[in-house]
């Protein structure tokens, strides 16, 4: 795992959050469940994604769009369509649930021959759990569009073959293919010519800062100092500090503190039986009081207050996520030379 891969921890397509739709015009699907992330891929035909208060996006065969919630959006055959919108949420999938041709993870054979001009749409809606996964939302625009012809094409081929089948385990395969598509689509968006990816994403390509980030993700609870991090990356303290600040826009230990607090926030919620002192030790603090002071400074609320139901937590600045404690450290090669 790296800073980018960690963003997807906890993001998984799950059964009822998958839909395969075969549509003949006129048609309009209105997605109303407010999913934090919804991935739409057109296998054949075309249509328009119409977000609220934003320009429509044409989606052709082989193209993918990711829509960031919670605002609803519509997928239509043409802008201004005369079709009556069908509301599609994560449970709106079969006729008895209010849907028509919106199905859960299998090919809709009841539609018969859809005729010329039919559009096949694959949809995966993703819940976002915890502070780590939430940072993926912070790094994305409301509508992210990826054209065909890139790394997503291989996934599309597998998706097309799988939705045409009716075999045991199909739902599991489709879910994992959607996860693969999500990662590929976001990566292509960040790597597009003229793009402006988040600073932490670009920083991973630097041989010095990239290694430093991988070390911090692999061993977040280690007693890091700038000197020890520089030793592990094979450069001087001054070189590491300068390059890290240039690419990440903050010093290494400031980044580490925010990173630890992000991990601690999830641990406080996920491990209800753990004491604040135990969470503190899990993220590298031997002193629970020092941890609480740092947590409140970064998160705007005490650890106990954060864990309390109903607590309103202030918005946090965008930053890379942590690995879970106890993760097996990745092997990081020593690169560069001392200067």
UniProtKB/TrEMBL annotation:
A Pfam family matched in the record: Cupin_6
The keyword DNA-binding belongs to this UniProt entry's keyword annotation: yes
Entry keyword Disulfide bond: no
InterPro entries per record: AraC_lig, AraC_XylS_family_regulators, Homeodomain-like_sf, HTH_AraC, HTH_AraC-typ_CS, Tscrpt_reg_AraC-type_HTH
HTH araC/xylS-type domain: residues covered: 210-309
Keywords: DNA-binding, Transcription, Transcription regulation
Designated name of the protein: AraC family transcriptional regulator
PANTHER family documented for this protein: HTH-TYPE TRANSCRIPTIONAL ACTIVATOR RHAS, HTH-TYPE TRANSCRIPTIONAL ACTIVATOR RHAS-RELATED
